From TrEMBL:
Its EC number is 2.7.7.7. Belongs to the DNA polymerase type-Y family. This is DNA polymerase IV. The active site is at 108. NCBIfam families: PRK01810.1 (NF002492), PRK02406.1 (NF002677). The gene is dinB. Mg(2+) binds at residues 11, 107. Monomer. It is found in: Cytoplasm. The keyword Oxidoreductase does not apply. HAMAP family: DNApol_IV. One of its GO terms (biological process) is DNA repair. It catalyses: DNA(n) + a 2'-deoxyribonucleoside 5'-triphosphate = DNA(n+1) + diphosphate. It comes from Sporolactobacillus inulinus CASD.
Amino acid sequence: MANARVIFHVDMNSFYASVEIANHPELREKPLAIAGKAEERHGIVVTSSYEARKMGVRTTMTVREAKKKCPQLIVRHPDFALYRRTSEQLFTLLKDYTNIVEKASIDEGYLDVSNWIHRRHPLNLASEIQSRIREELHLPCSIGIAPNKFLAKMASNMKKPMGITVIRKRELSQKLWPLPIGKMHGVGPKTEEKFSLAGIKTIGDLAASNPDAIEKKYGRNGRRLHDFANGCDVRPVDPDSWDRYKSIGHSMTLPHDTVDLKMIYETMQHLAGKLETKLKREHVASYELVVMIRYHDWKTVTRHKSTMQPLRSWQEILNLAFSVFQANWSGEAVRLLGITLASFQAISESTKQLDLFSYQNDIQTEELVDLIDRINDQFGENTLLPATRLLNKKHSESPDSGC
């Protein structure tokens, strides 16, 4: 019992919509959707209130489709600055209970409350946390309670909104194994299809499979999912994981002060390529970009842009960065340019809404990424690498690297 772990997964319910309602009480009990701006070609529903969901509004619908389902739908554009501030308040509150808090995303996190186990019943503690979030931030949340992160995440999904669910290892056959394999955290549509074709229809089917056969067929990720299906997850709650990737950036002083857009574009292209390499190395995508412009007289301006689309490739980074530059450039000679990325999310967790004007390119990119991932899963993580990664590896292993 002394070594027992008690892990909470706190998952905010319909976070963006709930934050809007908390800050605009007139929206309470009304159908609300948070969606991108149609004029930016991203008029896609990101999230919606439970009132809107009851009317058939779903994430990834276009605003036009959503309004057909719910003519009285209220549409708000995302206020990322407000959501970030609210997220900071949330995690400050959670740290009142333990220092072992891992921010998994802007609206969810893990708490290791094992040190409370002899003082408070986990259900009572979870109820207090949920009540405080509701009373102080005016936001609903669900909390999963389990002996590890995977089971806590699965538990928090089982009752929304305002649910508190416990999964114990001895309850796997009743609570976890009957669920469809597509409901398992970490199993996306493509993995679900692969499992289904192999006759693995439920989480219990995966748990009962031969682990060596699963690893041989699906690689290390398949073995990891098999462990999870059997309730095994040794990952610690890591308070430093979010800050580890707080931001990455590169800047470059131009050979001479210039107003030449071709040179500026090529410089930003070089910076975007370096950032792509870092994103791939850390297996993360970015949702926030900052462009720095330093002029000939050393005057420096920075401009921030949040995006609903994950930034993963150099082309995506370059397109957004150059657009921000053009919108904010004074026309004066530029001395230095910089691009910084922030608001990261693991690639496995990030999603991309297909742009109607570029979805064919996106699909081709997804197929290439999937192929590389399959090869690396099957034959080892570093089987296929970008050439720049190999160069970086070579430099880091050289005697001059200080390693």
